[in-house]
Amino acid sequence: MVSPPPGAVARLRVGPAPRPLMGSQGRPGPPGNRGPGEGEGEGGEARKLQDARVVRGKRRKGKGKADAGQGGRGSGAEGKPGPQRAKPAAGPGAEEGARAGPGREGGGGGSAEDGATSTVKRDEGSVGAGRAAQGSDDGQEEERRVRTGRRDDGRPGRAQGRGAQAWGGLAGTGAAMAAAAAEGEAAARPAAGPALWRLPEELLLLICSYLDVRALGRLAQVCRWLRRFTSCDLLWRRIARASLNSGFTRLGTDLMTSIPVKERVKVSQNWRLGRCREGILLKWRCSQMPWMQLEDDSLYISQANFILAYQFRPDGASLNRRPLGVFAGHDEDVCHFVLANSHIVSAGADGKIGVHEIHSTFTVKYSAHEQEVNCVDCKGGIIVSGSRDRTAKVWPLASGRLGQCLHTIQTEDRVWSIAISPLLSSFVTGTACCGHFSPLRIWDLNSGQLMTHLGSDFPPGAGVLDVMYESPSTLLSCGYDTYVRYWDLRTSVRKCVMEWEEPHDSTLYCLQTDGNHLLVTGSSYYGVVRLWDRRQRACLHAFPLTSTPLSSPVYCLRFTTNHLYAALSYNLHVLDFQNP
């Protein structure tokens, strides 16, 4: 910086203020920050020095904060031109500013040397003002980037450099700046990119709803905002309803609202491709015919004449070894049981029905049939049971009427399976098919009268081992004839609308469905579990769970969106589709 010659203050003459030079950004420099003794003469050497400083000022970008105390480099913290009258500044430049006060008030009329010196000082003030203006522009740009959660290196964060002081003046404390940056990262859209991303979210949802799984997955890899946007459940509902075991019924009801739809679609791909990890949850020393039920994070399974309740660990693929509860009361093996209204209703080989309260030790058992009770169901406070003694009976669940039979139905055949309609108006029985009538018959729940029978072409001995209602007008059945049949009561009761044949001609002991496209069956040999897509005829995948020396039927099947559980003679198996 050029210093004024001695006695320059004394030689200054009062006159009109000189016209300010233009800064590096085309803005006038602040008059209060000019150097002392500014004259009006402009020499060639001073002009070259000014041009060199202007070029250097243009090259330096991001040096936003002006230094008001040193030689007049702009006066504002935001890099804006200073006021018309310079304010006193602290620091080394304050004394020079005080000595140069008379020169600021008046114009320069001294010698050529004084004029050149004044020009040099004025050049420095103009360059400082230009840098301050450039700093203001950089500060505003940095503020915009911080508010949208972006930085030049692609990462969200606070403004950097001297231009960050402008952002700090707006945002306040450092904690507020960090909070604003985090909020911008989570919700702000990308400022650059195709105009498509600047459309309203409703239109984007409509456009993206036509994409398939692969396209949505690639779109989520573009940026953070699109990753968050493509995780919306609305985009994945259509895909999930067409997937296997995604938690949606055929009518579109979401049964697993606590799990994001996108995560369920990911696991659904493993079900479709048959990717899983096999494990064993429980083992028994002697052969059993177990039955099981799932409720929330608990598993209920029968072993001999007991029913044990276990709690799942968080991974869902293992159990706490110590049972939560043990429910007893039968003298012989438990053949079947259901969960209803915080009760366990069990059917035993001793011909008795047991009613257990889950959260207490209350247990009631009463004689129901003359021979073993093979099946039982309970809905709406009504219990129905089927027995080997060729009868089906209806019982109330009310505590004051336990053991009082409402209806006794002569089925003329051994009853292997039974199910109550969701409308609570009827129930269906599956028998051994040893007579001259269909093994599937529907009875009125209130009167006990026969309403209709399903099918007319069953071969002798084609007993129905498992039957279940999927809706008030549709049901599924399987049994000794190696077929799974799908019945729709709205079309015809004489013939099923769909059927799937077991490839190895094995008896089908049990079946389960997700209420949409997935169907799971358990075979009689080698513990084979089969997955079926109901939109296809052929089996998707088969999982043999036992070897030749330990061949066992699959007595019971249950599954969630992540795991499948199969109860065999000696083990309880799990197929983990979440972590294959």
TrEMBL record:
Keywords: Developmental protein, Repeat, Ubl conjugation pathway, WD repeat, Wnt signaling pathway. GO terms for cellular component: SCF ubiquitin ligase complex. CDD domains: F-box_FBXW4 (cd20090). It comes from the Eukaryota. GO terms for biological process: SCF-dependent proteasomal ubiquitin-dependent protein catabolic process; Wnt signaling pathway. It holds the Pfam family WD40. The keyword Repeat applies. PROSITE patterns: FBOX, WD_REPEATS_2. Part of a SCF (SKP1-cullin-F-box) protein ligase complex. Interacts with POUF51. Probably recognizes and binds to some phosphorylated proteins and promotes their ubiquitination and degradation. Likely to be involved in key signaling pathways crucial for normal limb development. May participate in Wnt signaling. PANTHER family: DACTYLIN, F-BOX_WD REPEAT-CONTAINING PROTEIN 4. This is F-box/WD repeat-containing protein 4.
